[in-house]
Here is the input.
Amino acid sequence: MVSEVLNTDIPPFDLLSEHELEILKHSLSIAYFDAGKDIIPAGGSPEGIYIIIKGQVEEYDETIEGDRDAQRVAQYSEGDLFGSLAVLKGRAKDKYQAFEECICHLVPAETFLDLVHDNPEFRHFFHEGLATMEKQRSRLSVPQGGDDFSLVRIRDSVLRQPVIVPPSLSIAEAVNQMRQSHIDCLLVDCDECQSNYALVTRTDLLDALAIEGKTPACQVGGLATPELITCEADDFLFNALILMTRKHIKHVVLTHEDEIIGVSELTDILSYLTGQTHLMGVQIEKATSVDELTQASKVLNALIRTLNAKGVKIRFMMELLAALNGRLVAKLYEITMPTHVLENTALTVLGSEGRWEQIVKTDQDNALIIADSFDWDDKERTRLLDQFTEDLIAIGFPRCPGNIMVSNPEWSLTVSGWKRTMKTWTIDMSEETQMKMAISLDGHFVAGNKKLFEEMSLWAHENLRGNDIFLAHFGQSVMNFGVPLTLFGNVKKDSEGLDIKKGGIFPLVHGVRALALKYRCRQTNTYRRIEELIEKGAIHERLGRNLESALSLFMQLRLETQLEQLEQAGTDDGSKVTHNRIQVRNLNRLDRDLLREALHVIKEFKEWLALELHIRG
Amino acid sequence: MMLTRTLKRLANRFKNRDSDLKGLFEPYAGSEIVSLDCEMTGLDTKNDHIVSIAAVKIDGNKIKTGDAFEAMIDHGEWLSEDAIRVHRIRKVDLNDGVPIETAMMAMIEFIGNRPILGYNIQFDFKFLDRYTRPLLGFSLPNQMIEFAEVYRKSVVAKRPDTVPHLGFEEIIDDLGIPTFGRHTALGDATTVATAYVKLKRGR
Here is the structure.
């Protein structure tokens, strides 16, 4: 009967065994507190951990200078659990006070510590912070009955034994071999090749016969591609799909510890994913007009919904969507620009697009780098770039409200023009230029002449990194928005919701960006930046992992509010997404706990960053 | 009524001065109270039966739900349809029930000489007495605390002009106490206990 009252089907109690649940149930009591009463005084040793049945509790850190609002670090309401940290430490750092009349379940400290001691999973839930909590969340949100295919490994799903043939094999024999083995590609022995093998596909053979006029008796050796595109067999299936989408190929060679152990074909992956992802990729590649690209782009939001509903990890979704969006933009540029323009310009996507962190297309940020030697006719330039911006809007990338688009001459400069501009930015250091610099540093090449982009990117990092004053100013804006920890449950603010971009995403992304600049890390994706910063020893691994988890949570919550807004507006037009606010009170207990933890991570990160970058608060 | 009960208690205390149960007649010295609730097959104290008994201890601001007493009674006979409708206890639910005698002894051990709190507690006691008398030779000697009376007093103390509604749901509603499984004995005992703590500790 008591189990009806304390729900033990949700984390962390669902981690307990039958026997442990019995122990838990027999230790429970219900405690009543008047409004204003200290449930756990600061510095006191708590009686146990509490789960709120009714009422609200506030947590105060009395060491913070300022009024009650400044001291309030968290608010707990129905279903929330509090006091675990205090019990684990034996002493409460903060004060927990009943904000209104409170009725709570109480698990005595002794019982809680016994359970934590005896059950490692239960312990991890409380000990290891956010990274574990995120695991608990994904464990909960895996859709019933469906595989979480973002966790499927290539080796376990689509690995095929490679068929190896000598270069002297004739085309006819090769086709026969393919038929027998039900495979679309062969590895050809190749002594000069780096990996000792070259790859020949059914399409290569068809082209040779139909277009190049080869006969079936010709040897396959000369037709094979010597540069193999490989993927680690233990990598996730999703990464193989992203690789294929990025490189627009249909086969990858699978390796393990540098040995070739198999091949994987697109059709096999598709049979796993049954989604439209690659079909979309194919559609983009085949497109020859803006109309065709628009058609391909239309299914993107539906795809996002499907992937989200299937429980695909947000990080994989971001990469996949970035790959598809990137190809979309690149293809448009390639279709609409004449060759002399393609050779002398580099199209770059900036901001969240550049970081591969845009899922729903809410705006376009892009810039152009033009070769100094390129004598571009002004009229042609204006016409082509204006048209390009309009075309992008037509295929589903809404206009940038800040006018950061190639049609704006400010964002379409020659290499030396860019260098001059960036230098003035570092000297000016106003808020506006800070933001411009930030978006530019996230730039990612998509089409045209890559060398121009490489030159700019190297120059920017070399010239900005050593400038400590610039770095300190640059990092400053991380501090601009307070962590919205005190907003929890606050009725007045609650009706507006919590702005997850200002409170969580921005400080995290920008802080990591500033560090990336300081430590010469040229990745643009935030996860990859964090990874590299950990490797370089620039940030502690624990903090890094927590930041990754926090970012995933923020992105997930933001995606959900974006999809909801689109649904309400009855459109797929990303410009109809007007805000990034989430309603904390609508979140379930676990998500609320996660969000609180994640915001604590941001708080910790900001404090650490202020010291690291010598930012004055 | 109360007076005769007190007299009976004193007499029984004297009669049982050497028995194992003499502790029941000692005045209670501790800080705990027991909230008790019985579910019956009907309202006839002579002919209806107890189907379940539950009790939970209150100490200060805590209700010890983990250490509660709960017994389903197996009378080995058919339950009235009305009882099934009200309590949603079907005959099959009573399969792991115990004979009333066993339940009574276990309950007495659990409550000891603590004061007993309940809503319409005299009614429950009438049923319990029907079993304790043949079993032990006396009625339960524990002090009774009528929850509805505690509530009435607290309301009148604050708002002397009002005539409080004393229906169970109305009281719980007025106090804003969450209900813990209405129409289970343990649920009701817990609800009453929580409401009592609020009345006694709340401002």
